[in-house]
Amino acid sequence: MNDSTADALGAPEITELAAADDAPLEPDRMRLVDRIASAYNVLLAVVWVILIPQWSYAFWLFLAHAVAAAMPTLLERAGNRLSPVGRVFRDIYPLLWILAFWTELDFIRRLLHDAPFDRVVGALDIAVFGIHLDEVWMPAMPWVWFSEVMQLAYFAYYLTVIVPLLYVLFKGSQEMKHDVTLRVVLVYYACFFVYIAFPVDGPHFLSEHYEGPHQQGFFYRLEWMLQAQGDSLGCSFPSSHVAASTTMAYLGFRWFSKTAALLLVVAAAGVVVSTVYTQNHFAIDSPAGILWALWLNLMVAPVLRRWWRCELRRSPYPRSPSALP
Asked: Residue-wise over 293-323: b if at least 16 C-beta within 10 A, else e?
């Protein structure tokens, strides 16, 4: 962690980060992110139990989530007996599940809801902006060069999230690793919870896309090729692209250099506008993603940390001699 970041956080905050999660001297202690992952798996298990009468495979998904919900406890009991590969897996498994959770959201949307809530969000979009910007922006500015800039900004979302996470997992301190993993997992899982309860399909699925010369652009083709590999219904509001990019920009100021933080802010701004121009989202999805991410990071995460510290104090955890003051 750089000196400027340490100054911004302050010594009490650093101590708080170490106390809120398992410290390096206590590798077998369950972390807050483990508890969140377990709770989300319990939620998914309940959802799939409800859907068993509608889909025969729902039982196996329920069973998989029931086992996954128990994984944090199993990893905690393994403790120091984990191999180096096992320790790496323990650090990253809540992040890996984001991909699996995203895929199954499409099944949940189709099985649990007869129709999305696009009328509600569409009306809110009109009330705020007066028009659907996703319908008029691209036809008004169809130039190939501008479209390519927007498509590149939308594609940069993947780099904005993946590259910092790889750095944190392989180069970051334990405090940095726990804080970043917790906040990224919290934002994604919270978005997924909304998608389960309040699915919005968005313009990508429901609107006709503008056709023009911009479709010959490299990044336009690249983005559509990636989306053709699989996308999920019901995941438009709030935009998880925007929420995750906003979170990474926020984490940039907490843990990275000023230059890296500013780059993450620029990348996040590109994601905010490109989600609308590329006709993947209603315009209202972007500010909703920003507000959702800021609320989770500035309000929810600190509350969860305080609750978790209280839980740790109450739990009869046998400290090793080296961990004692």
From this structure: beebbeeebeebbeebeeebeeeeeeeeeee
